[in-house]
Amino acid sequence: MGIELKSWKMYFDGATNQNGSGIGVLLVSPKGTHIPFSGRLNFPATNNATQYEACIIGLQVALGLEVKEMEVYGDLALIISQIQNRWKIKKEKLMPYHECLQKLASKFGKIQYQYVPRMQNQIADALATMASIMDGPKEDEAQPIVVEQKEKLAYCMSIKGDEGMNGEGEWYSDILQYLKDGTYPKSADKNDQLTIRRMSTNYIICGCWVKMN
Question: Nearest 10 degrees: CA dihedral of 172, 178, 179, 181?
Fold first, then answer.
């Protein structure tokens, strides 16, 4: 019997350019579920500050998902070394970030940080760069971006619920419920809700049909 993996992985990155600043984070569950998200910073921030912003937001989301063990990866050696307390922080403006990270880290049962080359951090880097050049919604919450590999043509699968749009008792009923009104079954925990949201990105409601994207 194999050893069950418990640790989540988190990849983070920040980007600052002439258009603005953005952050990108990719969470990977022990089962391999990828949860990417990004955000635009509507305030002046240095490149180092965006790195801290991304890492802090990622840890906050992980804690919200009740993650207990975390492996954190970043591609800026300076920031990783500072977080590990191997290098001193010389810029006073970064001290509050460091203190915040330490407080968040103390809430995990186990957490470790590691430097990775940028080539191994491409998704977080792309999310941060995209966020830095695009204006996000001002009022509504931004939805996660899900990138998947599809093996079938878009028109290969469509399903129709019994009795019109109800679909009650069908395997896709939870997805249909979420697409219709954004709610979950009463018995769904946080992990179930994440799965439903992720799977719902594959489908749209078209008339009385639920169609796969």
Answer: 140
Instruction: Give the burial class of 179: count Cβ atoms within 10 A of its Cβ; 0-12 exposed, 13-18 middle, 19 or more buried.
Output: middle
Assigned CATH for 8-133: 3.30.420.10
The residue extents of the domains of the chain are 8-133, 158-212
Burial 106-132 (b: 16+ CB within 10 A, else e): eebeebebebeeeeebebbbbbbbebb
SS3 content of the chain, % helix, strand, coil (to 5): 35, 25, 40
Rg (CA), the chain: 20
pTM of the model: 0.63
What would the pLDDT profile of 126-180 be if each residue is shown by its tens digit?
A: 999 888 887 655 555 555 555 555 565 544 545 554 444 455 667 778 888 888 8
